[in-house]
Every structure is written in structure tokens, then in C-alpha cells.
């Protein structure tokens, strides 16, 4: 869209140099994602500890394990809560503004993580039920953060570095995962050094000291700390200029807000132009006009995210077996409860440091150079290559002397997930949809992803599963679908949000006049 056809405030945002407020916005949104990732993934580090504490059977040759139904439920209810949060806050973000509920999502995370650590009950099952209840509400807060953070950052950023800024917000997820590992390492090592618990095979009762109950509670409650610090900052942020100008239709206020936080030349409000530019932009997601303009884009964004999360969360489920096969984590009976928590978190920290974090930062460096679609294509393709290679040679790679190669190749699947679709599926939906439907469509895409996470988690937690080798063949083939769905997406690199989405394009509005709205729901 040519500069002369855009509101001055939107043109100024697109052309503004990178400034302190951009960095501040990344920190504010990114700290939310740091807390999101910590809260979401830390529970997998302590599930074995929960089994030993609450489901120990005297006389059993093996330590207690969480019943399969609760192992599924603890993960499943969080994902269901995320779907609810993504759809609800995505819709609210378009109806009442991005900022209105931005602080509330953080408070849900604070309360959810803190109360998870206080889970109580008269029986072991009762404790697990209350834990699931609190993690559902934690999931609602985490889910709401996805569409709001992505959209706020994309609407503040300039068009040249927008991808890097949104990727930097999402990259804080990697530090959140690593922080969860570090906190678990520190807590389990401290308690093990203090209480000297023996391995289970030596003394089953003493291998899980009563004080171990404090460890998992501390790990879960610590997730509230980074979230609580971002609340005040979020509440002090102004509404994004794009929402104010294009959805609330108050260009003068948008100009004032941006002049307050960004160093830009004097911007005219242009209230007389707002009506003509926004005319015809009141169609909903379930309208024929949206289907014509963006239907394939929404299908591509949602389906790509669904496939990615099926694969990504399945990888996490397979880690336990792979760590065992390469002898990173010994058999449970050969360790105490605290030593097991320590070894599991140490193994996951190595994967995070060597694969997860570098992948995120490669995306930041290259997303505005080679483009979102190229990175998403590359990520899906390389995940396919490494998964099929590991699957084909899995038996040989698990033999002594070759295990390092298995770990390296498996780590590369995480690298290309994050230097690939795990990052770009978050970035693209915040760029390609019109302002009045941007958070709604991002929420729908993210919810599709978490539906994929449920499929991946439940499918690969099945006790009668198909094994690591066959699972990797299935996941490798699934990545091919991700490549196909990526073809449906436009490339937003170097283009303004209005140019990509058609926002404020009077010619497009006139061309669509014959289509009509045909609204089913006011979405």
C-alpha cells in the first residue's frame, strides 16, 4: 500500500527506527512468554517425583508412577485451558482492544502457577484432581498470552524488523524451558545433599524422603515470580496505534499515544480519512468476504500449527525413552526420587542449551532476511530428514559408542523445530490478517496448534504405543503435511501489515462489495 493511501500514524510506525520502546515492548511481552514456557514445561520435570511420592506401593520392585489417567490429565487439562484462553482472549482482543485484558492473562498465570504448588487433597487422587483444576486456569492465562503478545508486538514494530521483534518475544520461551530445568536441578540437588536419599533398590521407603514433597511444589510455584513482575509494565502500555486507528477508528488518539512512546515526527490525526479507509472492514471470520480474502491463509496458519504441535509435543513425550536408551537416565530403581528429578532435568537442559535456544536465535537473525515461509519450509524439511535418519538407524545408534550421534541428531530436530515452524507459526498469524480480526485469527491458529499438542501428547503417552522407531517414522511423514500447508501462506517479509492483510485498501473493499458479509456470528 502506497504511503499516500495510508494514515500518517501507520506510515510512521512502519518507517520508525528501532528505539528503546521497541526493546521495552519485547521485554514486557517476552517475560510473559518466559513464564508461559516455564509453567507449561516444568510439570514434565516433576511428574516422576509425583508418582514416587503419592503412588508408592510397598513391596513393589519399581518406584511408584502416576496412574496413566492422571499423567494424561495433567498435560491435557493445561492444553484445553490454553485453547479456551486463545479463543476467548483472541476474540476479546479484537472486540475491546489488545491492552484491555493483557494484565489479566498474567494474573491468571500467577494464580494458576502459585495455586498449583498448593494442591491439596485427602487422598493421592484428590491432590492430582486439584492440581489439574489449577493447571486448567493456568492454561487459560497462558493461552490468552499467545494472540495478545504476538499482535501487540507486530503492531508496534516497523516493517523491516517486525519478524525479528515478534521472534524475540517467542524466543523467551526457550529461556523459560531452561529456567525450569535449572530450578528443578537446584531444588533436587539441594534436597538430595541435605537428606542423602539412597537408591530405591537399596531402601525403597527412604529413597523418597517426606521433604521431597516440597520440591515439586516449589518448582511449580516459582513460575509465578517472572509473571508477577510484568503486570505493572503491561498495564502502563498504551493501546496499539493500529487497533486505535483501524478498529476503534480514533486516529487522533493513536497519533497521541505513539508520539508519547516513540520518537517520531509530528503526526496528524486525520480523522476525516479514517472513515473512508476503514469502510468495509466490518466483516467477520465466518463471512463470505473473509473466506474469499483470507480463508486459505487461516487454513494454512492453523493447519501448519496443528501439524507442528503434533510433532513437537510428541518429541517431548519420546524423550524419556531416548534418554533411557542412551543411558543418560538410569533405570528408576537405581536412583532415589530426587536423583531421578535431577537427572531428567539435566538431560532436558542439555537439549535446551544445544538445540532449542540456538534455534530460536537463528530465527531472530534470519527471519527478516530470508523470510518466514523459507524458514518454515526449511524447518519442516530438516525435521523430516533427521527424524527419518534417526528412525532408520535407531537400533545401531543406541549401541555403545554411537549414542552420542543419536543425541546429536535428535537435538537437531529441536534446533530445526525452533529455527523453523515453532517460531514462524507464532509470527505469521500476527501479520497476515486484518486489524479487526488479527487476534481472533491468531487465537484460532494457536488453538489449532494446541489441539495438535493434545493429539501428540495423548498419542505418544499410550502405554501400548508403537515404539520410538516407528513413532519417528510417523512424525517424519507428518512434517511433509506441514510443508504442503505452508504453501497456502503469504510472505509478510518487508511489507506493512496493511499491505499484507489488505487493511484500509479502498480498492479491495470496492472489489468485494458484491460478496457481502453473510455473518453467522459477530466474530
Folded structure, characterized:
The chain has 523 residues and is mainly alpha-helical. 72% of the residues lie in helices and 0% in strands. The protein is built from 21 helices and no strands. The protein is globular, with a radius of gyration of 24 Å. The two termini are 26 Å apart.
SSE map:
Layout: H1 8-15, H2 20-54, H3 68-95, H4 102-116, H5 124-156, H6 162-195, H7 212-221, H8 224-236, H9 241-247, H10 251-261, H11 271-278, H12 288-325, H13 337-370, H14 372-392, H15 394-397, H16 403-418, H17 421-427, H18 438-460, H19 468-486, H20 497-501, H21 506-511
Helix pairs in contact: 2-3, 2-5, 2-6, 2-7, 2-8, 2-13, 3-5, 3-18, 4-5, 4-8, 5-6, 5-18, 6-7, 6-13, 6-17, 9-10, 12-16, 12-17, 12-18, 12-19, 13-14, 13-16, 14-16, 14-17, 14-19
Summary of the model, kept short:
It contains 21 helices and no strands. By secondary structure, the chain is mostly helical.
Taking pLDDT < 50 over at least 5 consecutive residues as the criterion, the unreliable ranges are 513-523
Which outline best applies?
A: globular
Q: For the residues shown, what is the average pLDDT?
A: 87
Alpha plus pi helix count: 21
How far apart are the first and last residues' alpha carbons, in Å?
Answer: 26 Å
The residue fraction in helices comes out at: over 70%
Tally of extended strands?
0
Residues in β-strands, percent = under 5%
Order of helices and strands: HHHHHHHHHHHHHHHHHHHHH
> Structural class per helix/strand content?
mainly alpha
Structural Rg: 24 Å
Major β-sheet annotation: none
Amino acid at each position: 500500500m502506497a504511503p499516500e493511501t495510508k494514515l500518517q500514524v501507520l506510515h510512521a510506525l512502519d518507517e520508525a527506527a528501532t528505539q528503546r520502546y521497541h526493546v521495552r515492548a519485547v521485554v514486557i511481552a517476552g517475560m510473559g512468554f518466559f513464564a508461559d514456557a516455564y509453567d507449561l514445561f516444568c510439570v514434565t520435570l516433576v511428574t516422576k517425583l509425583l508418582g514416587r511420592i503419592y503412588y508408592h506401593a510397598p513391596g513393589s520392585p519399581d518406584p511408584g508412577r502416576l496412574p496413566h489417567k492422571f499423567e494424561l490429565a495433567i498435560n491435557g487439562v493445561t492444553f484445553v485451558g490454553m485453547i479456551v484462553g486463545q479463543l476467548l482472549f483472541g476474540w476479546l482482543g479484537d472486540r475491546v482492544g489488545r491492552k484491555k485484558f493483557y494484565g489479566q492473562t498474567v494474573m491468571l498465570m500467577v494464580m494458576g502457577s502459585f495455586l498449583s504448588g498448593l494442591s491439596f487433597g485427602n487422598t493421592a487422587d484428590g491432590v492430582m484432581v486439584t492440581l489439574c483444576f489449577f493447571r486448567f486456569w493456568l492454561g487459560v492465562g497462558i493461552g490468552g498470552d499467545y494472540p495478545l503478545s504476538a499482535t501487540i508486538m507486530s503492531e508496534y514494530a516497523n516493517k523491516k524488523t517486525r519478524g525479528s521483534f515478534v521472534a524475540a518475544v517467542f524466543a523467551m520461551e526457550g529461556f523459560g524451558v531452561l529456567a525450569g530445568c535449572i530450578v528443578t536441578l537446584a531444588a533436587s540437588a539441594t534436597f538430595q545433599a541435605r537428606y542423602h536419599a539412597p537408591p530405591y533398590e537399596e531402601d525403597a521407603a527412604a529413597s523418597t524422603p517426606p521433604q521431597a514433597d516440597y520440591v515439586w511444589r516449589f518448582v511449580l510455584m516459582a513460575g509465578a515470580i517472572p509473571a508477577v513482575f510484568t503486570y505493572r509494565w503491561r498495564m502502563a502500555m498504551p493501546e496499539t496505534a493500529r487497533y486505535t486507528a483501524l478498529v476503534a477508528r480514533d486516529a487522533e488518539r493513536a497519533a497521541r499515544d505513539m508520539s508519547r512512546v516513540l520518537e517520531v515526527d509530528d503526526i496528524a490525526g486525520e480523522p476525516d480519512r479514517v472513515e473512508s479507509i476503514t469502510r468495509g472492514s466490518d466483516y467477520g471470520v465466518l463471512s463470505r468476504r473473509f473466506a474469499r480474502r483470507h480463508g486459505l491463509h487461516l487454513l494454512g496458519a492453523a493447519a501448519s500449527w496443528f501439524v507442528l504441535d503434533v510433532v513437537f509435543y510428541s518429541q517431548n513425550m519420546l524423550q524419556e525413552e531416548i534418554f533411557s536408551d542412551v543411558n543418560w537416565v538410569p533405570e528408576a530403581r537405581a536412583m532415589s526420587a530426587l536423583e531421578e528429578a535431577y537427572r531428567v532435568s539435566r538431560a532436558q537442559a542439555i537439549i535446551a542449551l544445544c538445540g532449542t535456544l540456538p534455534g530460536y536465535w537463528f530465527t531472530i537473525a534470519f527471519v527478516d532476511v530470508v523470510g518466514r515461509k523459507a524458514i518454515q519450509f526449511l524447518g519442516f524439511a530438516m525435521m523430516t530428514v533427521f527424524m527419518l535418519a534417526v528412525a532408520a538407524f535407531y537400533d545401531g545408534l543406541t549401541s555403545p559408542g554411537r549414542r552420542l550421534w543419536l543425541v546429536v541428531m535428535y537435538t537437531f530436530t529441536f534446533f530445526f523445530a525452533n529455527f523453523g515452524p515453532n517460531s514462524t507459526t507464532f509470527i505469521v498469524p500476527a501479520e497476515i490478517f486484518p486489524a479487526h480480526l488479527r487476534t481472533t485469527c491468531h487465537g484460532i491458529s494457536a488453538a489449532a496448534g494446541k489441539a495438535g499438542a493434545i493429539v501428540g501428547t495423548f498419542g505418544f503417552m499410550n502405554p501400548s504405543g508403537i515404539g520410538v522407531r516407528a513413532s519417528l517414522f510417523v512424525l517424519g511423514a507428518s512434517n511433509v503435511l506441514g510443508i504442503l500447508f505452508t504453501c497456502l501462506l503469504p510472505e509478510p517479509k518487508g511489507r506493512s501489515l496493511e499491505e499484507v492483510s489488505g487493511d484500509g485498501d479502498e480498492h479491495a473493499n470496492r472489489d468485494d462489495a458484491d460478496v457481502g458479509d453473510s455473518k453467522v456470528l459477530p466474530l
